[in-house]
Amino acid sequence: MPENEPESKHQVYQRLINKTEDYIEQHLSEAISLEVLAIHAHFSNFHFHRIFKKYATESLNQFITRFKLERAAIFISVNQTIPITEVALNYGYNDSSTFSKAFKRQFGFSPTQYRKQQELTRNQ
Question: Is 28 helix (H, G, I), strand (E, B) or coil?
Fold first, then answer.
């Protein structure tokens, strides 16, 4: 894009989504709320939520949950010896039960089943 050509709203808001993703990636072990993300993006809660809803393909909560669970799944498959409870805590869940339910909802397997499946795939 030429230096003097302004960015479109879509480009600005897409950068906001990317910046939000970066923030979540850096704070995986924390509870992340609309308020925290809005402050980080320098928008009001209402404006941030409206923009996110318009330019993302899922709700903010779905986005945060999916993002954390995808990263947790990678972690589980790479770190075979770390207990699921520890993984749950590392990804912002208060207990392994809540984490396991969310994980199963997202992937169709419990974290333990997923880990075993990944191990079998590696050993073949």
Answer: coil
Q: What is the pLDDT of residue 6?
A: 65
Q: Helix, strand or coil for residue 53?
A: helix
How far apart are alpha carbons 40 and 47 in whole angstroms? 13
Q: Provide the mean pLDDT of the chain.
A: 89
Selection from 81, 64, 77, 62 nearest residue 111 by Cα: 77
Rounded Cα distance between 75 and 65, Å, is 15
**Cα dihedral 13, 19, 24, 30 sign:** negative
Is residue 67 within 8 Å of residue 25, measured between CB atoms? yes
pTM: 0.82
For a pLDDT cut of 90, what percent of the chain falls above it? 59
Q: Does residue 1 surpass a pLDDT of 50?
A: no
Give CA separation, 51 vs 5, 22, 77, 91, in Å: 22, 17, 34, 26
Return the ∠ at Cα 38 (arms to 8 and 104), rounded to 5°. Answer: 100
